[in-house]
Amino acid sequence: MEENNLVQRIEVLYGQLSSLGETIKSSINHKDKSDSSYPQAAKRYNVILKQLQELTKDIDYIRESISQFTEYEEKSFMYHGNYGYAINLLTDINMLVSSISKFKSSIALEAKKIQGEKPLIFISYDGDELALADFVKVIITRWAADKIETFVARRDIGSGDNPLKTMMELKLKNADAIITICSIKSKESGWVWWESAVLWAKDRKIFPLCSNISPGGFGAPLNLVSQGKYFFDETEFMETIQVVCSEFDIQTVIKEFSQEEKKEYEKLKSEYSIPKTTSKIDVVFETLEMTQNLHKYSLIFDVWNLGDKAFENVVAELWFPTKYLEKTEWNYSHLQAVESEEKRGYTCLTFDFSALPDTGKRQFGKDLLPKKRLRIFGKGGISILQYHMTHDLWWDVTKYEVVWKVYINGGAPHEGKISLQSLQQF
């Protein structure tokens, strides 16, 4: 065991982080930002974080080793206090990292300025709404007098370049902020969510602009980490562009649309501000049996493709009151059922079209096409979900509902619910 060596490494690292914290604070408050303290601090920060990652591996190794100690070895090691001391120091290190991490983006940005690089804004959008991203790019470039670099994937990836490497490694990874164009389509695609998450995890600013959906309608987590503004509210659009520029200490030279920009803005508004959904979910029921004391029903759960492209995949989560179900076990590659932990008294069924056997994909694949209906539950569909109602069960029916989340092509969920009472005739 090298416990003493480990403790020494922790002590050295703690001293480095403490010194770095003071350097960073001094650099941030330095009046003359033309010196080299910013890039030096940024470089040292990354080096020390790598050391911390390695140290964490060592701590994990030590913990694992301690778990295998004999009773005598454990008493001996604890007696000398090395382990507890090391853990306490590591806790202090984590607190130090947390306290100085908020300065990292500022340091990186100032380092860019010193090296003559422009701030980089990543514009995230759905592929069918490229015109909106183009407009944002034009406005920022002109208003900021070309002092900000903007990246629009379709426009800024050169011929022959590796698109994923350019977009992910060179641009998204190094972006200083992101403008997300939030719409019904981008909510369903999943790309805006993922790209925003990458920047949010790096403590970068997110500026949502909502075209044909409200910030609340676009939903969490994006609306929880950044206040969205409306793309087609002229005041809010201009305010967003000015805030983006001021974030990088750039005074906007221009603060209003030119005649051509105004004309283009109104054209985009007429085309992209109207809500257009690409899917619809219908939930109804079919009566199977009706007697004085017992009714049996079959749930019908349909997902409609209202768009002009085939769905790549459909995933659905359905929460149904357990005591009304005819059966509670589904254990197939494409359909699983578990007792819900988040909703007591409910069974959660999870359906995944991509996990269907090949025969099922061939049979139901056509139902993913535009203007077609994919029936997940119900007669003629992929599976059957039957439930019943008795006189005793009926008294509790108002307490329950059927809840669902449907994910199209890995995008954000389409959520809905319906009272159980409306799915029966007792």
Overview of this protein structure:
- With 426 residues, the chain is of the alpha/beta class.
- The chain has three domains: 3-111, Methane Monooxygenase Hydroxylase, Chain G, domain 1 (Up-down Bundle); 118-272, Toll/interleukin-1 receptor homology (TIR) domain (Rossmann fold, 3-Layer(aba) Sandwich); 279-423, Immunoglobulin-like (Sandwich).
- The protein is built from 16 helices and 14 strands.
- A five-stranded parallel β-sheet has the order 2-1-3-4-5, with helices on both faces. Strands 9-10-8-13-14 form a five-stranded antiparallel β-sheet. Strands 6, 7, 11 and 12 form a four-stranded antiparallel β-sheet that branches.
- Helix 1 (3-28) packs antiparallel against helix 2 (37-67) and helix 1 packs parallel to helix 4 (82-101).
- The protein is globular.
- 29% of the residues are buried.
- The model is unreliable at 31-35 (pLDDT under 50).
Q: What labels describe this entry?
A:
426 residues; alpha/beta; Methane Monooxygenase Hydroxylase, Chain G, domain 1; Rossmann fold; Immunoglobulin-like; 3 domains; 5-stranded parallel β-sheet; 5-stranded antiparallel β-sheet; 16 helices; 21% strand
Question: What's the quick description here?
Answer:
This protein has 426 residues and is an alpha/beta fold. The protein folds into three domains: 3-111, Methane Monooxygenase Hydroxylase, Chain G, domain 1; 118-272, Toll/interleukin-1 receptor homology (TIR) domain (Rossmann fold, 3-Layer(aba) Sandwich); 279-423, Immunoglobulin-like, CATH 2.60.40.
